[in-house]
Amino acid sequence: MTPAPTAAAPAPPVLDLTRLTRRYGTLTAVDDVGLRLPAGARHAVIGPNGAGKTTLLNLIAGTDRPDHGTIALDGTDITRTPPARRSRLGIARSFQQPSVIAELSVLDNIVLAGWPHHPKRRGAWRSPSRYRLHTEAAGHRLETVGLADLAHRPAAALSHGQRRMLDLAAALAGDPRLLLLDEPAAGLTDDDIGRLLGILGGLSSSVAVILVEHHVEVVAQLASTVTVLTAGKVLVTGPTQEVLAHPEVREAYHGTGSTAGRAAGTAAPHQGAGTTDPSAAPARG
Amino acid sequence: MDLLDAHLIPAVDGVAFGLLLFVVAAGLSLAFGTAGVLNLSHGTLYAIGAYTGAELSDGTWGGLALGLAAGTAAACVAGAGLSAATAPLARRGHLAQALLTFGLALIGGDLLIQLFGADELPVRVPEALDSSVMLLGHRYPAYRLCFIVMAVLLAAFGTWVLTRTRMGAAVRAAADDPQMLAATGRNPRAVHTGVLAAAGALAGAAGVLGAPIIGPGPGTSENVLMLSLVVVVLGGLRSLWATFFAAVAVGEVQTLGVSLVPDLAPYLLFAAMAAVLVLRSRFAEPATAHGPEGPAPDPVARLRGHLAGRLRRRPRGTPGTAEAAKASGTAEAPGTAGASGADRAAETAGTDRAGAAPRGYGNRVPKWIGRLPGGTAWRQAAPLLVLLVVLISLPALLDAYSISLAGSALALGLLAVSVTILTGYAGLPTLGQTAPFAVGAYATANLADAGWTVGPVQIVLSALAAAVFSAVVGPAVIRARGTTVLMITLAIGELTGAVVNQLKSVTGGADGLVGFPATRALWGGEGMLEESELYNYALVVAVVAVSVTLLVLRSPAGKLLTGTRGAEARMRASGHPVGRYLLVAHICAGALAGVGGSLMVTVQQYLSPADVGFEIAAFALLAVVIGGTTSVIGALLGAGLIVATRDWVAGSWPGHGPLLLGVLFVATVYVLPRGLAGLRGGNDGGNGRSSGAPAPEDRPPSAPAPNPAGKVSP
User: Fold this and answer.
1) Per-window interface: B 641-660 vs A, CB < 8 A
2) Most CB atoms within 10 A, among A215, B163, B436, B651?
3) Which pTM does this prediction carry?
4) Which residues contact B637 (CB under 8 A, 6 or more apart)?
C-alpha cells in the first residue's frame, strides 16, 4: 500500500495498482494489493511459495482478471484490457516455465515475439521483404542475450538456461515499458545467472521492471525497491536493503516460527544484513 | 392450463429421455474426464446393452433382471477391453484414442448387425409395467415412470460412489493429480481400467433399461453417442449436476420442444447448443488455464502424462546423418498424430516435432520461405509434383467408375486438407468439418438447380457460404482447446447433419438431391457429363485450392499458426491477437471444405446426407492422421486410401464397408503412429508407440538436443 519512495514525479506512474484482489473459491490469492511504479523502477516482489506473486503478475499481464481493484498503465485504466492488447501497450513478461515455440527456430521465436510491436508489422505475413526487416531486428535482439549462434536451431533443441534466455529475449523483443519477470533465475547455473544479471542490468532506464524472484542475491542486485507478499497481502514495501533486513520479513519469508522471530528480535537485523549482502551470501543454484 | 395439459406427456417423456441420456453421458464424461479417453464407441456400448436386454426380454421380471445383469456385464467387459486397447496409446494423445474408438465402433456396429440382424429388435417389458397409469388425467406408460425411478436410483448410486467412497475418491484423485495418487500406492492404470469398465457398465445398464425408449437398431449407437456428446459438451465436464441439467434440457428439447414448435424441431437442439456455447464463452473465465504457468487445461493431460511415464521409454531413433535429414523431407515429427492439438498448454515443452533440420546455419538465402520446417521448397514440392503427375495420368489408366471415385477422393482430399489446417496447424482437432463441407455441397446443388451452372461461380459461392457458416460457428470452436474441440465440432457436425435430414426443401431430406443440371467448367461451355471431364475439372480446382493453401501455410502466416499452437501464452504475451488468428484459420479451413463439398456434388452428380455425415468427418480426420497431422500431401493420400478401401476393396465384400474401415482405423492407429509421412522419416520402423510425442510433463527440464537428423514437420 505504501507508494514507492521515488513516486514523487509529476508524470503518472507507469503502473498503478489499487486495491487489487483475486479470489479462487475461498482462497484469496491476491488480497487488496496496491503498488505504484515510476518509469525506470526496479521493483522486486518476494514472498513464500503461494503468496500470490505469480497471480499478481498474471493480473498485471492480463491473463487473469481481478475480482476487485484497478490496474492503470501510464494513467490509463487497463483492468479489463485483454492480454494481447496490454502487450501492445507495452507490458511484456517472461514465464515461470520458459515459454518458447519448440517447433520454430530461435530466430523465428523472436521474430514472432517482436512482430506485433514492429513499426512495419502490417502485411509482414505475406511480404518477404517486410518479414526480412523483422528477422534483422530479431537477430540484433539475439545478440544481446547471447543466443545469436543458435539463431537457426529449433527452440526445442535448447537447454533450460538457453530457453530462459530465449523467453527473456522474446519478452524484450517488443521494447516494453513494463517488464514482468517471473522467477527469471530459477534453475539457472551461476554462469547463466551472471549473464542474466548482465542483461537486466543493461536495460534502458526507461523500462520499469517487476521481478518475482526467490534468489535473494538477484533481488538485492537488481531491485531498488521490494514488496513482500504473504498470503496475498502486502507485508511491507520499501527500499531493498531495509526490507530484506526487516525482522517480520525474515520471519514470513524464511518461515521462522513466530516465537523464534520474537526471541531473535534483536539479532534479526544483524542476521538480515548478513544474508542480504550479496558479497557475503553464499551463491545458490 | 390447456397448454400445460397438452404438453404434460411430452414433458414427462422429456424427463425420462433426459435421465436416460444422463446415465449414458455420465459414463462418457467419466471416461473422458478421468481416464482421458474420448470414447466414440460409447454409443456402441449402449447398443450392446440394448441388444442384450432386448434378446433376453421375455415379458417377465426375471427376463428384465437377467437382461440387466447380462447387458451390464457385457458392456462392462467391453469397456475394460477398451481400456486395454487405449492404454498403449496413452502418450499419443486424444486424437489417436478417438480414432481407435471410432474404428472399434464401426467394427462393433458391424458385428452387432451380424449377430442380431439389421432390423430393430422388439423389446418386451414385464407385464406389470406393460400398461398405462393415469397421470393427471392422462394415460402414461408405466414403464417410463418406472424407468425414471430406476434412472434416478442409478444416478444417485453413481454419485454416491464417486463422492462418498474411497474408490470414488481415487477416481477423482486420478483426474486431479495422478502422481499424488500413485504416491499413495494406487496404480493409476488400474483406475484407468476401472473407470472405463464402470463407464461401460453404465452405458450397458442404460441400454438395457432404455431399450424400450431408444430401441436397439442399426442407428442406435450413433444417435446415442451424438446426444450424449451434446450433453457432455453442454454440461461442460465440470460437475455431475451440470451434466444432469444438460441431459434433462436436451431430453426436453427433443420431446417438449418438438411438440411445442414442430416446425422448428430440427433446429432446436442446434440452437440450444449454440446459445449455451456462446453464453459460456461470453462469461467464461479469461484464458488463464492456457498459460503454461497455470494448471494444465484438463487434468486428463496430467493423468496421461503420468501413464506415459510408466510406459517404457525407448530412445528416439537417431539416424543422425545429413542424408536422413534430407530424406525426411516433409516427414512428420513423431507423435504429432495425437498430441498436436490436444492440450496445447501442457505441450509447450513438447520437443519432438522440432522445427527445421539445421541445414546451413548462416545460410541466409531463403530467409523466410525455406525456413518453414520441411526443408527447401523443392524438397517439399517434389512429392506433390509426383502426386500431381500421377493424378493427371489417372484418366488414361482407369475405368470410368474408378475415375469418378478418384474425383470423389479429390473432394474428400480437400476436406482432409482443411482438417489438416485446423488440426495440425491451428491445433484445433476437428470432427466437424463436414458441416462447412455440407454447406458447400448443398450450396452448389441448389445453385445448379437454380440454373447457376458455371463451375467457378459455384466454387466461389460455395466457398463463401461455407466461410460464412464457419465464421458463425467459429467463436464456439476457437475458445476451446484439445479434446473439447473434438466434442464441440463433433456436435456441430452431427447437428448440421440432423438439420440436413430435416430441411427437406433445401436438402431433399434423407432422399438427397439428384437430377440437377451438370456443371459447366467455364462460361459458355457445355455441361460436363463424362467422368474424365469431371475428374479433370476436379483436379484443376483441387490443384488451385491446395496450391493456395500451401502458399499461405508456407508464408509467415503459417508461422503465426504454428506459434499459436506451440506456445499460445507466449504469443498472447507478445501481443498477438491469437483468437483472431484462430478464427481466420477456421474460416479459411471452412471455405476450403466448402470447395471440397462443391467438388463432391459436381463429381457425383447427386448428394445424400450420408455424403456429409459423421462417418465422412471421421474419415477426413483419419485421412489426416494417416497422412500425419501437418502434412498436406499426407492428407490427400489418406483420403485416397480411404476412398479406395470404402469403394474398391469393400466392393468385393458387399455390406462390410464399415467393418473394413473400422479395421483400417484400428490398424492405422497402431501401425502408423506417425502416419504415412512417418514412413519417409526412415526411423520409425518397429519404433511403434514409443515414438509418440513425449509427454511434456515428465521431460527433464534440460533435454538432450534432439538428433541432428531433425524431425521435420511442414
Assistant:
1) none
2) B436
3) 0.74
4) B387, B623, B626, B627, B676
CA pair distance B622, B493, nearest whole angstrom: 16
Q: Which residues of A touch B351 (CB under 8 A)?
A: 102, 156-157
* Helix ranges, chain A (H): 53-61, 83-89, 106-114, 128-145, 160-172, 190-201, 216-222, 240-245, 247-254, 258-263, 268-276
Q: Which residue of A91, A103, A141, A182 is the best one to mutate when testing the B interface, meaning the one whose CB has the most B CBs within 10 A?
A: A103
What's the pLDDT at B582? Answer: 92
Residue B702, pLDDT > 60, answer no
Question: How close does chain B come to A82, measured CA to CA in Å?
Answer: 9
Q: How does pLDDT run across A155-195, given as a tens digit for each residue?
A: 888 888 888 888 988 898 888 889 999 988 888 888 888 88
Chain A contact for B569 (CB, 8 A cutoff): yes
Beta partners for residue A227, in sequence order: A45, A237
Give per-residue pLDDT as tens, B164-208: 877 777 777 777 777 777 777 777 778 888 888 888 988 898 888
For chain A positions 143-182, those within 8 Å of chain B (CB to CB) are 151-157, 159-161, 167, 170-171, 173-174, 182
**Maximum distance among all Cα pairs of chain A, rounded to whole angstroms:** 69
The H or E element that residue B160 is part of is: helix B142-164
Q: Is the ipTM of this complex over 0.90?
A: no
B485 near B612, Cβ under 8 Å? no
Q: Is B238 exposed, middle or buried (0-12, 13-18, 19+ CB in 10 A)?
A: exposed
B317 Cβ contact partners less than 8 Å away, ≥ 6 residues apart: B681, B683, B684, B687, B691, B707
Contact at 8 Å (CB) between B491 and B226? yes
Residue B588: partners with Cβ closer than 8 Å, 6 or more residues away: B421, B467, B552
CB contact B355 to A (< 8 Å): yes
Question: Could you read off the pLDDT of B398-418 as tens digits, one per residue?
Answer: 888 888 888 889 999 999 999
Q: Going by DSSP bridges, is the β-strand pair A233-239/A76-77 parallel, antiparallel, or unpaired? A: unpaired
Q: Which of residues 417-446 of B touch A (CB under 8 A)?
A: none
Across the interface, which of B287, B557, B569 has its CB nearest the CB of A99? B569
- The cell for B40 is 466414440
